[in-house]
């Protein structure tokens, strides 16, 4: 009679140890190791914004009058395009990483095998979110450090601007994460995943004020970009890292914080709805 009791107690202890939060942490550690072992992911999502900022700043940097449309004089290239690179990095780490990795894991049967284990699905997705948060924050820290040390870009000192940065980062990362999970069902195979994901995202970067001054784009391209979250995320980041006088240079003459919160929140909700309705643990041909 004693042995079954002890075994029941051991099972209860094991269940307490294997709680979803504990599993999620272990999963996040595993995801981080896998992410940084993939050279393509490190170069084209983690380091890409940093490389582009350095390259463009060296090639096109023109001193303190690079952008002189704002009242009171201009600023150099690195400072102007740092916000766009930050926004781009958030979407690369969250949307691109998840959309490609989940498509590959679905194709090779990893998702199907994981679904058949006792691991709660929420722990799996929390592990992905944990990986994205660590990688995203590390990328931002490195990007800000390179901008400051290599190009003399000083970070803002006002607490209000860092508060704006915080909600932009949270909404942008959350939206990019759920949209990446939702979009992972679009590629029909692992081989096509990179092209199907990276291609549209590159186009969005060009029309959303990441690589070009948003005001210089044709109005019809501005209207298209305004439908998608990257444009609003980049604009929110500009309100943090550019001088206040640059607000007058925006197309609307305002940073539009209210609209930014609204659009990013709407995309977050849309992504959640699509995830719930369309996410698949196995390939289409598996039934």
UniProtKB/TrEMBL annotation:
Predominant localisation class: membrane
Domain of life: Bacteria
One GO term of the biological process aspect: response to antibiotic
GO molecular function: ABC-type transporter activity
Record domain ABC transmembrane type-2: where: 40-282
Entries under PROSITE patterns matching the protein: ABC_TM2 (PS51012)
Keyword Transit peptide: no
UniProt keyword annotations, A-Z: Antibiotic resistance, Cell membrane, Membrane, Transmembrane, Transmembrane helix, Transport
GO cellular component terms, A-Z: ATP-binding cassette (ABC) transporter complex
Coiled-coil residue spans: none
Presence of keyword Nucleotide-binding: no
Segments passing through the bilayer: 42-60, 80-104, 125-150, 162-183, 195-214, 261-279
Pfam families: ABC2_membrane
Family the UniProt entry places it in: Belongs to the ABC-2 integral membrane protein family.
Protein name: Transport permease protein
Organism of provenance: Jiangella aurantiaca
């Amino acid at each position: 009679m004693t042995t079954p009791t002890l075994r029941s107690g051991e099972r209860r202890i094991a269940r307490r140890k294997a709680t979803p939060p504990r599993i999620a942490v272990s999963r996040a550690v595993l995801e981080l190791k896998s992410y940084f072992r993939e050279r393509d992911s490190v170069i084209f999502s983690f380091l890409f914004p940093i490389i582009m900022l350095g390259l463009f700043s060296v090639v096109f940097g023109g001193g303190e009058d690079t952008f002189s449309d704002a009242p009171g004089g201009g600023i150099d290239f690195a400072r102007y395009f740092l916000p766009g690179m930050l926004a781009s990095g958030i979407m690369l780490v969250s949307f691109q990483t998840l959309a490609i990795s989940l498509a590959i894991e679905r194709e090779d049967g990893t998702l199907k095998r994981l679904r058949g284990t006792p691991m709660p699905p929420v722990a799996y997705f929390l592990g992905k979110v944990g990986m994205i948060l660590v990688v995203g924050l590390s990328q931002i820290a490195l990007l800000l450090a390179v901008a400051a040390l290599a190009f003399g870009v000083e970070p803002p000192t006002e607490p209000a601007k860092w508060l704006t940065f915080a909600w932009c980062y949270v909404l942008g990362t959350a939206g990019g994460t759920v949209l990446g999970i939702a979009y992972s069902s679009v590629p029909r195979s692992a081989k096509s995943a990179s092209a199907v994901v990276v291609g549209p995202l590159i186009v969005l970067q060009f029309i959303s004020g990441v690589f070009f001054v948003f005001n210089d784009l044709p109005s019809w391209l501005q209207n298209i970009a305004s439908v998608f979250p990257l444009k609003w995320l980049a604009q929110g980041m500009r309100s943090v890292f550019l001088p206040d006088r640059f607000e007058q240079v925006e197309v609307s003459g305002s940073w539009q914080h209210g609209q930014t919160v609204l659009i990013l929140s709407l995309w977050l909700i849309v992504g959640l709805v699509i995830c719930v309705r369309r996410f698949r643990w196995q390939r289409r041909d598996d039934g």
